[in-house]
Amino acid sequence: MKRTIIFLLVIIITGSSFAQSLTASMDRIKLAFSLNENGTPIYSVTFNDKPVIKPSSLGFVFINNDNFNSGFEVTGSDTTSHDDTWQPVWGEVKNIRNHYNQLTVHLKQKNTNRLLDIEFRVFAEGVGFRYVFPLQPNLKYFIVSDELTQFALAGDHKTFWIPGDYDSNEYPYTTSKLSEVNNKALVDKSTDIAVRVAPDSFAVQTPLMMKSDDGLYINIHEAALLNYPAMQLHVDHISLTLSSNLVPDAVSNKAYLHAPCHTPWRTIIVSDKATDILASKMILNLNDPSVIINTSWIKPMKFIGVWWEMQTGKGTWSYANSADDKDANGNLIPGGKHSANTANVKRYIDFAAANNIKGVLVEGWNVGWEDWFGNWKENVFDFVTPYPDFDVKGIEAYAHSKGVEMIMHNETSGSATNYERQMDTAYKFMKEFGYNSVKTGYVGKIIPRGEHHDGQWMVNHYERVAQKTAAYHIMVDMHEPMRPTGVQRTYPNWLASEAARGNEYNAFSNGTAPDHETILPFTRLMGGPMDYTPGIFKLKNYNPNVPDRQMHSTLAKQLALYVTMYSPLQMAADLPENYEAHKDAFQFIKDVAVDWDNTKILAAEPGDYVAIARKQKASDNWFIGAVTDENKREITTDFSFLDPGKKYVATIYADADDADWQSNPEAYTIKQFIVTNTSHITLKLASGGGAAISVMPAQPSQLKQLKSL
Q: Counting C-beta atoms within 10 Å of the first and last residue's C-beta, which end of the chain has fewer, N or C?
C-alpha cells in the first residue's frame, strides 16, 4: 500500500516566544509543539485530525524545587527525515523499516541560561520524544526531583492497567474507565495480599493500553530506558491527564544526569486498528543499534527444566529442610525432595535430546536456598558452589554427549551488590562448564538497601549485567527487572525478561483470569519478549498440596501461547511425564520455531482475543496461534500469507467441541488438511481456549492422503 508522507514545519512569529508553533506529520499522525504564555513547552498529538494527546506540558523539577519547566524561549529548531531498513539479530520479522521525521526544538531558560533540547520523532504509527541536555554554560549535572511530562487524553478511555509498584509488575490486569483507576483498596485476589503499590494510589504502570469510545487504540510507554528510572503514570480523574511518575532512589531523588545526556523516549502509539498496535516496531526503532559486533553466538532456543516441579510442590529448590539441618561436621542433611539432583537432571537432558529441545535449565543447584528469601541478607549465594547431589562436571559432560546445552540459574535474592562483585567469577565458572546462557533473578528487597527494582540504580545494574554477559558470550534472561523498552536491539544477548505476571501464578496462587494472555501482547510485550513459561499440559490436580487448583486455560491455548506470546527463549514448562501423556499435542511444541522471518497479526482486540501467524526463520514453515478470554468465540482467517501456487499441510490443534477451561480443559482435537494461499479456516475457541496450527510444505504422499480445506 502506498503511503502519503507529509512533513510540515511551521513557524509563526508574532513578537512573543510563546506564539511560536512547530509541527511535524507522517501519514495520519501529527505532532504540534509550542510555548505557552509562561514559556512552558507544550505538545499535542492527533490521529487523522482526532485529538489523541491534547496540549500537554513538558519539563522538570530539579532538587531544591528548582523549576525547569517555564521561562523558556526557542533559540532554533532542526528538521530531518530518516528512512532505512535494518535486520535484528533475532525477532518477529527479518527486516524492520525505520522511517520517521524528526523535529528538534532548542530551548533556553531565560533567567538561568540553561539549555534543553526536545527531540520528537513522528512515525506512521505514533510519536516518540525525549529530553536532551546539551553541554551547559554553567552547570554540568542535574538531580531530578520530578519529570513533568504530561499526556492529556481526549476522553475517559477504556483502560487496561496494573497498579504502580516500584518493585513488581506481577499483577493481574484491571479493565476499567481511566477515571476509575484507584489502587488504594485494590487487593490481589489471587494471593489475598494487599497490593504493594507505590505511595501514589492513582499510579499505573506502562505500557498502558487504552481504547477510546470512537475506536482509537492508544498505547503509552517508553523506549531505550537506560541510566534513568522507569516511568509510571499518575492518573488525574478530573482532567483525564496522565503525568510521569518516576521511581525514586533511597534518598527520594529520581535521577542523576550529567550533561551531555538524554532521557529515554516517551512513546505514543495510536491506530484505529488493534492489529496495528501489535505490529508496531516503533519502540525497537527508538533504540540504538547493537553494540555487539559479532552476534553469531546468540541463538534463540526452546528449553525445559526442573522449575515446574518446585512450583507445584513435587520438589524443592533447597537441599535441606532448613539451614540448621546439619550433621556433626557442619554439612547439610538432605531433605529428600531436592529437584536439582544429578539423576533427575539427566532425566530432563534425555527428554530434551529426544524432543528437539536445545536447553535444560536447573534451578536450586547451588547452596543457599535454605535461607534465601525475605531476610535482606547481602551474601546468600556465591554462584559457584553446588549442592552435594549436583555433579556439575558430570552433568556438563552428559549434556554435551546428548547435544543439549545447560542453562545456568543465578538467583541474587535481590542483592545486586553481591552479584556485581561476583559476576566475573560466576561467568568464568559458567564458561568452564559449558553454560552459554543464564537466567538471573532478583526476588526480594533490593540491596543496596532502599533502592528499587525499577529505579535508576537497578536500571544501570541490568545494563551492566547485559554488558558483562556479552563480554563472556553469554545470553541472559532476566527475571524481576523493570519492564522492557526495546533495549534488546542494543543488547541482543538480552533475550528475554519476566517483568509481568507469568504462568507460574497458576501454580502458587489461584491463578490469572483467561483474558490475561489477550491483554499482555498489548501491554507488557510491547516493550520486548517475555519468559512466560507456556506449555502446561496437566491443567488440573497438578499441585498435590492444593488439589482444587487449576490452570485458567485449555491445553490448545497453552500451545497457541508459543505463537501469541513472542519470545526467542521459550520454555516447555511442564513435567516430561505430562508431555508423554499427550505426545500427539506435544508435537506442536517440538515443531514450533522461536525465531521468525515474518509475522502477520490476523485478528486482535485487547482483553478479548489475539490471533497471529509467524514464518519460521530461513524456512517455509508457518505457525499460527489464536487465544480467547473467558468467552468462547469463532475466528475466521485465511492463508493469504502463504506462497502462491504452493500446497501446504496445516496441522490444526484445536479445542474439542466440549472443551472448557473450567470443566474440560484437556479436551482437544488434531486434524490435518491441505491448504493454499486461497484457503480459509474458522477456528472455534472454547472458553479460556485457543488453537495452534503448524503449516508446512506438503509432501507428495500427503497430497494423496489428505483432504483440502
A: N
